[in-house]
Amino acid sequence: MEFKYYIIYGILVNLCTFFVMGYDKSQARKRGRRIPERTLFTLSVFGGALGGIVGMRKWRHKTKHPSFVVGLPVIVLLQVIALYWLL
Description:
Layout: H1 3-30, H2 37-58, H3 66-69, H4 71-86
Helix pairs in contact: 1-2, 2-4
């Protein structure tokens, strides 16, 4: 598969994670139906960790949860190491 498809995938999954974080914050404020934390981590593991970090900062969402504050940067680090190893 061409490299550009990986770039497009990365952009889309990060945008998706970013907006899902915003949606979850909106639902939290309205006391509505929330996105499970497991789903947020799944999106992050499949390439959306940077989008999750940006969304976490932008909407001040999950910033008191050590699993997100530490976990998302660790996921990014592991993904960068894996990308370096693959290339």
